């Protein structure tokens, strides 16, 4: 799995940070998303998919790789 | 049987139902039956407002979520066709604009000026002080007689104290701003009262920003004052943002605390789980479920279509008003099996109680921590907490734009 974030779309809802804090964080200056781990381990995949689903701004993209 | 049902489905020549719809008596937590019927039979339907206008009511989760995230759908309340809850809102749309009523890119530019303090880490850092305030308010309850109005003893003061500290608003002015706020979010406020309250609050925040310009402190109004100083915002715009943050920051959480407590007391098995746990994950899940189940922003979200939009079988035309009705969306059985049951063990995170799309609640991390602290503390510290009247006799805010109870008389074993 590869994760991409589209920072300009982010609205700083914090939802992804709540669900997958090992993968997502927020910038200090404006709360915009920061990607911590673009290739998260398998144990985090469900949380990352859920973050992408819940993100209100469609700012998270998950590319499933074989 | 299904055929007869299909024939009784509302047709376009039938009278358009009045909106908002009343809840069923005896069912204070469930969406109105008429809205539920539209959800089941005609999920994109015209409804009639107080002023005779006929926006679309969108009652299903998937349609609502798609529209709230659709850039062809506008939040600008100054556009003709926007479904205003009353005359005061309509008249005030031009007078006092805040970013909740703007579209991107303007909305994003302004929202980003105030996002930093609501980031998860910043809000988590406030948890100990939110816990301390909660404990002190409960100490106050326990020091008095073994009964209280939970709204004035805990539900309202807690979020008010927190947002005052964040913004830099003196808490001693709480009677003033709580009274004006409640006038602004009452459906039946006259246009005069509503605009009077809005102007009074805007003047009050304007004055505070003046104070912060002269003597900056470590708070959000001082940050806004700095942006006024640098010309990024006018003073009136900054005051207007302050009004939005002050109202949204206390009324909503207060209603969740009080109404959530009523719902839990009416579901003692669920309350028992909270009373007996010290696992923050259990409490956090319960918060999401109560947000879903109660959907206190209960009159939906108003929008206007900027272009023609197909939704299911309906075509929403450019210029039409839209109300995305999250109350029934949050009871969608496909996402939330047995949706009318309060089940604090379920995964309710996909609810739309905070909205969806770019306007999704800015204060949600703060609201969550406040609710986690209260739900995780109150029932453990007062295990015999109960209603002093029947749940049917409580003064529910049917007339409020945010649902809840005006008073919550509770008692406990001394
Ligand atoms: C449980 C409590 C709360 C609920 C249920 C709630 C609900 C909502 C909803 C449904 C919206 C979406 C508006 C729309 O789509 O047009 C919203 C927006 C907003 N909320 Fe909350 N809210 C809560 C607490 C708070 C708190 C504590 C604050 C703190 C300041 C806050 C500040 C805001 C602001 C500023 C917006 C406008 C965001 C924008 O337009 O970009 N809310 N809220
Ligand atoms: S969930 Fe989406 S909008 Fe919210 S902080 Fe993460 S990326 Fe930003």
From TrEMBL, chain A:
PROSITE patterns under this entry?
4FE4S_FER_2
Instruction: Name the UniProt key words of this record, in alphabetical order.
Output: 3Fe-4S, Electron transport, Iron, Iron-sulfur, Metal-binding, Transport
State its cofactor: [3Fe-4S] cluster
The residue stretches assigned to a coiled coil in this entry are none
One protein family per Pfam: Fer4_13
Protein name (record): Ferredoxin
Q: What are the GO MF terms of this UniProt record?
A: 3 iron, 4 sulfur cluster binding; electron transfer activity; iron ion binding
**Matching SUPFAM superfamilies, A to Z?**
4Fe-4S ferredoxins
Organism, by scientific name, is: Streptomyces himastatinicus ATCC 53653
Q: What does this protein do?
A: Ferredoxins are iron-sulfur proteins that transfer electrons in a wide variety of metabolic reactions.
Gene3D superfamilies, from UniProt? Answer: 3.30.70.20
From TrEMBL, chain B:
Q: Does the keyword Cytoplasm apply?
A: no
Q: Which Pfam family is an annotated match for this chain, by its short name?
A: p450
Entry-linked SUPFAM superfamilies: Cytochrome P450
* UniProt keyword Metal-binding, yes or no: yes
PROSITE patterns xrefs: CYTOCHROME_P450
Q: Which GO terms describe its molecular function?
A: heme binding; iron ion binding; monooxygenase activity; oxidoreductase activity, acting on paired donors, with incorporation or reduction of molecular oxygen
Q: Which UniProt keywords apply?
A: Heme, Iron, Metal-binding, Monooxygenase, Oxidoreductase
For the region Disordered, give the residue spans. 1-29
For this chain, the family text in UniProt reads: Belongs to the cytochrome P450 family.
What is the protein name for this chain? Cytochrome P450-SU2
Instruction: Tell me the organism.
Output: Streptomyces himastatinicus ATCC 53653
């Amino acid at each position: 799995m590869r994760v991409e974030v589209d920072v300009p779309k982010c609205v700083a809802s914090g939802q992804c940070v709540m669900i997958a804090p090992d993968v997502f964080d927020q910038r200090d200056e404006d709360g915009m998303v920061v990607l911590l781990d673009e290739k998260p381990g398998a144990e985090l995949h469900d949380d990352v998919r859920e973050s992408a689903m819940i993100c209100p701004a469609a700012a998270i993209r998950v590319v499933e790789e074989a | 049987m299904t055929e007869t049902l299909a024939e009784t489905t509302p047709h376009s020549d039938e009278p358009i139902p009045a909106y908002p719809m009343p809840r069923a008596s005896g069912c204070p937590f469930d969406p109105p039956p008429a809205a539920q019927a539209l959800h089941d039979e005609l999920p994109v339907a015209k409804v009639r407002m107080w002023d005779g206008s006929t926006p679309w009511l969108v009652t299903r989760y998937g349609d609502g979520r798609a529209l709230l995230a659709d850039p062809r759908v506008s939040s600008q309340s100054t556009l003709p066709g926007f479904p205003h809850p009353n005359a005061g809102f309509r008249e005030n749309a031009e007078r006092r604009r805040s970013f909740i009523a703007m579209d991107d890119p303007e909305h994003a530019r302004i929202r980003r000026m105030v996002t930093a303090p609501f980031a998860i880490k910043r809000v988590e850092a406030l948890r100990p002080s939110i816990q301390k305030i909660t404990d002190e308010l409960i100490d106050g309850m326990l020091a008095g007689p073994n009964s209280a109005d939970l709204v004035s003893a805990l539900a309202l003061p807690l979020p008010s104290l927190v947002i005052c500290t964040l913004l830099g608003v003196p808490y001693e002015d709480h009677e003033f701003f709580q009274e004006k706020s409640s006038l602004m979010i009452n459906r039946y406020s006259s246009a005069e009262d509503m605009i009077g309250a809005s102007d009074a609050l805007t003047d009050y925040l304007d004055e505070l920003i003046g104070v912060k310009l002269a003597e900056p402190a470590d708070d959000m109004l001082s940050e806004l004052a700095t942006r006024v100083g640098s010309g990024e915002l006018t003073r009136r715009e900054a005051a207007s943002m302050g009004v939005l943050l002050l109202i949204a920051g206390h009324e909503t959480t207060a209603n969740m605390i009080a109404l959530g407590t009523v719902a839990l007391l009416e579901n003692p098995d669920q309350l028992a789980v909270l009373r007996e746990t010290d696992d923050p994950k259990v409490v956090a899940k319960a918060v999401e479920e109560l947000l879903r189940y109660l959907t206190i922003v209960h009159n939906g979200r108003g929008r206007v279509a900027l272009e023609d939009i197909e939704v299911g079988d309906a075509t929403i035309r450019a210029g039409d008003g839209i109300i995305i009705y999250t109350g029934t969306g949050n009871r969608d059985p496909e996402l939330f099996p047995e949706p009318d049951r309060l089940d604090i063990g379920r995964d309710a995170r996909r609810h739309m109680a905070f909205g969806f799309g770019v306007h999704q609640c800015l204060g949600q991390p703060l609201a969550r921590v406040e609710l986690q602290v209260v739900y995780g503390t109150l029932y453990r510290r007062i295990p015999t907490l109960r209603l002093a009247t029947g749940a049917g006799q409580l003064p529910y805010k049917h007339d409020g734009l945010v649902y809840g109870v005006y008073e919550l008389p509770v008692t406990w074993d001394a």
